[in-house]
Each structure stands twice: as structure tokens, then as C-alpha cells.
């Protein structure tokens, strides 16, 4: 490879977050030829989705590829979970779109807002199928990042998040 590693933002083995897919690992930095152009790409693997993604190094920032959230953002997300649910009285389809956009933003605090707003305690009415799907998606995305940050497995991260949610209820 011709690139100097110092100018690359991510190194092989780094845990990174890609907004639409969550936490992955930089498996390699490769040089590929695409449409006659030499292109340097980060090869990011997502074990939970059994998927590999190639992100051009020059477009990584605009694509939203980022390092795991720092401790301050992590604690802010946990505080957000403990807050009161803010459910707008708009049509479900519009709220669902907003929730989906927050989940795919890759922002840990926005994802925490979705988890908080869609969480149902034992004594609350059942969720609809689509609410449950969005809740599970947001919880999974958040749990995977928390697990990577805290160096614990996903289930332990879900337990940690649920503890924060139950205290809030």
C-alpha cells in the first residue's frame, strides 16, 4: 500500500461505528481499482450481520464512520435513558420515520432517545409490532456500542441499559 498510516483516521483492528449498521471492526485498509481510479478503502466487518463494508478513506467522515463514543457521550446517553419518555402526538408513521432516522444517524444519544421513548414497563400496555421492531433495533444498536465501549458482551450491555430504563420508570 502506498498510503502513510499516519494520515489515516482508523487503523486495522479499531472498533468503529457506521450509522446504518452499528459497530464494526476495521479489518484492513486496501487499495482497489474502481472505474479506472485507485481508491483506498477501509474494509469494515460487522460480525453480527455477517457483512463486510468498504468505505473510501476520503469519504469516511462524510459517510459517518466514527470511533466509538467517548465516555462523556456514553454517560449522556445513559442519562437520556433515565429521562421521561417524550412521545409526540403525531401520526405513528411520521414518528416511526423520525425514530428510524435517529437510529440510522449513528448518534448514541439520539438512539438512547428512541430506546427511552419506545420502552414499555411491565405495567404499561403492549407495543404494536412496528413499535417493538423499532425498539429492538434501537436497543440492539445501542447495546452493541455500549458492549464495545465497556468491553462486555451484548447481553451484559442490554442488562445494563435495562437497569437504567427500569430506574427511570
UniProtKB/TrEMBL annotation:
Pfam families listed in its UniProt record: CarD_C, CarD_TRCF_RID
Signal peptide segment: none
SMART domains: CarD_TRCF (SM01058)
Ranges of residues in domain CarD-like/TRCF RNAP-interacting: 9-119
Domain of life assignment: Bacteria
InterPro entries reported in the protein's UniProt record: CarD-like/TRCF_RID, CarD-like/TRCF_RID_sf, CarD-like_C, CarD-like_regulator, CarD_C
UniProt protein name: CarD family transcriptional regulator
Organism from which the protein derives: Asticcacaulis currens
